[in-house]
Amino acid sequence: MSTKFSTPHPFPQLDETALLSAAEALAQQWTKPIQTVLILGSGFSQLARQVLNNAPDRLVLPYGEIPHFPQPTVVGHQGTLLLGTPPGSPHALACFCGRFHLYEGWHASQVVAPVRLGKLLGAERLFVTNAAGGIHPDFQPGDLMLISDHINLLGHNPLSGTNLERFGPRFPDMSEAYSSSLRQAARHIAQQQGLVLKEGVYAAVAGPCYETPAEIRMLKTLGADAVGMSTVPEVIAARHAGMEVLGISCISNKAAGLGDSQLNHQEVIDVTARSENALGCLVQAMLASV
Ligand code: HPA
Which of 102, 103, 153, 229 to mutate to test the pocket of ligand 1 (most atoms within 8 A of CB)? Predict the structure, then answer.
C-alpha cells in the first residue's frame, strides 16, 4: 500500500464523515441557521462575551463536547464555541474562541474545522482575527489592521489532497480573498467610531519561532505589512466554500529587528487584550450592519 507521507502525520485528517457527524451533533443542540463564523485568536478571550453577552439564546460548548473536534494547546486560546444571536443582529453567530495552528502539529483539515463546521450549519461569512507583528513602518503595537490580502508562506494548504466537492471546486479563485464590500463597511464603521483602522497585507509563516530580522526584511520586500502564524488556512477554506471573509489583525509588536525589545508570547497576549474592546465594538457593529 502506498502512503503520501514518509512519516505518519501526528494528527489524522479530519475527513468529511467526521465533519458531518460533528455538524449533526451540534444541530441537536442548535437549530437556527448560522450566518457568520467568528474565529478569535490569541488574547481575545473576552471578545466573544462582549459580542454575545446579552444574546438571549446563547449556548456555550467546550470544544471537547463536539465530536471529532480538536483541542487547542496554546496559552491564550480557550477552546470554547459560543453560539447566539448578537443583540442588534438579525442572524446567529458561531464564535470559536481558540484556534488551531499548523505549528501545534494539527493537520490542515483540523485547522479549518471551525470554518467547515460553520459552513455545514449555514454560515455565509467568516470574520477572522489574529495577532500579528507589524512590518509596515507606520504600524504601532495596539493598532488594528484590516487584512487586504495575504501571502501564504506556511508550506501547507487545507485544500491539498482529495477535493471536498461538498464545499467547493478543485481550483478556487483567490483574487478577492478578503471581501472588498466587507472591508468598505469596516472602514465606514471604524470612521464612525473614531477608530483608526490600518490596512495591509498579512504574511503567514509556519512558526512557532518568531522571525529573524533578515526574514522580516525579506517579507517587507515581498509586500507584507504584517506577519503571523495563522488565519490563511481558514481563509482559504472559507473562500473554497464560497464564504465572504473579513480579516482583522491586532498589531501586537513591531516585527523582529524593527523594535527595541525581543519578542515574547505574553507581550502578544497583553497587547492584543488591550485592543480587544475596540475590536469588539467594530465586530459588533459589523454584525449588526450586514
Ligand atoms: N511574528 C509572527 N507571528 C506573530 C508576531 C510576529 O512578530 N506577533 C504576533 N504573532
Answer: 229
